[in-house]
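Researcher: Sequence recovery benchmark, item below. Answer with residues only.
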């Protein structure tokens, strides 16, 4: 019997359209002999929609998103007994009441309100097995401030950095600039919880720093400032599995064709690619200029792969992630830059180079999801007591509840 696999994509995020591309690459890769694929589109207003035509990327391309929504059915997902059921919001005499059930969910949502633990929490409430990181690991993966504190405490190498709230620009601009001067220009500024290089820029002096800070805080209330490593190489590695078993992909070295100092959104998603991909013409992160495998020595490659697995496990990750590294070209020092818990294109191109093709990658994601649910089913999450049976209501003078 086939499993009903729901792929969630979209969301209220600056990476909404990127999510649509990544999700359709995943949908195409899922084996139709094993799975009934159900596309679940999360609109920018957080409403859920589905339609058979959504399995094709062309359902969304060449027109505004409102047009795609108008050809879809708005839905709700509810728990009924042991089943997770899809129900249309609007029902009628000649309309079916249920649109099927879901056995496993695969979130392919980038950025805030999806990758950050939001969709994972929703799936947890439904008790629906899902691929990828759990709520806490997803949240830490999205929030680079929490992430860097954990990496530092675990003894993993990161660049010199500090973070600040966006309001500190008005409250203590002088103190903010003193921290920057200790790092020494140039520095890179990042919104703490965005991706796809959105809101990221480099400052070379105080005037530029203030401008970059203003730009970054449009996307997040927490801003990270890091020392720029120059000259540097950008090396990425994907990790697949969970805390019980994890393996690293081949490495890639990422570059860009523009004259910008940073790999920007256009470099990542809006250029043609010779990288092997899916049947879709939309290549997503696979379109980025890259060298696979990265031109590194065997020892350097092994060191970074081991570091990737350590990072993956320290952050409690699961599913398929991509860990981005920075290497100092002169000293060969390697720093952990960040983890992407739902990477663009699900980093399939790094596994394809290891002869783990996209279809097998999706199979493994489903397997990891089901294994986690199997383990969780054996754990205790509730504890029966007679607290309410013996409780006597007495207003403010009654018994007080305690939590130890």
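Model:
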């Amino acid at each position: 019997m086939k499993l009903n696999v729901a792929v969630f994509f979209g969301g209220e995020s600056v990476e909404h359209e990127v999510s649509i591309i990544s999700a359709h690459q995943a949908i195409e890769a899922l084996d139709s002999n094993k799975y009934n694929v159900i596309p679940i589109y999360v609109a920018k207003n957080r409403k859920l929609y589905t339609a058979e035509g959504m399995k094709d990327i062309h359902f969304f391309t060449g027109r505004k998103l409102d047009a795609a929504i108008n050809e879809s059915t708005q839905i709700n997902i509810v728990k009924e007994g042991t089943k997770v059921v899809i129900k249309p919001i609007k029902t009628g005499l000649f309309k079916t009441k249920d649109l099927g059930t879901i056995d496993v969910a695969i979130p392919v949502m980038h950025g805030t309100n999806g990758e950050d633990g939001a969709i994972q929490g929703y799936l947890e409430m439904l008790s629906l097995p899902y691929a990828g990181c759990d709520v806490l690991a997803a949240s830490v993966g999205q929030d680079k401030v929490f992430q860097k504190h954990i990496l530092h405490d675990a003894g993993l190498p990161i660049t010199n950095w500090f973070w600040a709230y966006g309001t500190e620009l008005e409250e203590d601009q002088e103190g903010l600039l003193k921290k920057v001067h200790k790092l020494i220009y140039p520095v890179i500024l990042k919104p703490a919880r965005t991706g796809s290089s959105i809101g990221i820029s480099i400052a070379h002096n105080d005037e530029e720093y203030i401008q970059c800070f203003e730009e970054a805080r449009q996307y997040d209330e927490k801003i990270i400032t890091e020392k720029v490593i120059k000259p540097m190489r950008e090396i990425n590695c994907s990790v697949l599995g969970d805390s019980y078993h994890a393996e690293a992909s081949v490495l890639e070295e990422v570059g860009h064709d523009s004259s910008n100092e940073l790999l920007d959104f256009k470099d990542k998603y809006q250029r043609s690619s010779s990288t092997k991909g899916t049947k879709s013409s939309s290549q997503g992160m696979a379109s980025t200029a890259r060298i696979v495998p990265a031109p590194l020595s065997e020892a350097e490659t092994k060191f970074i792969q081991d570091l990737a697995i350590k990072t993956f496990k320290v952050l409690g990750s699961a599913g398929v992630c991509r860990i981005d590294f920075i290497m100092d070209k002169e000293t060969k020092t390697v720093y952990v830059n960040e983890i992407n818990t739902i990477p663009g294109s699900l980093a399939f191109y790094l596994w394809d180079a290891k002869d783990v093709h996209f279809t097998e990658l999706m199979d493994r994601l489903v397997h990891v999801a089901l294994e986690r649910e199997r383990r969780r089913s054996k754990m205790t999450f509730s504890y029966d007591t007679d607290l309410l049976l013996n409780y006597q209501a007495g207003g403010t003078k009654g018994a007080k509840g305690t939590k130890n």
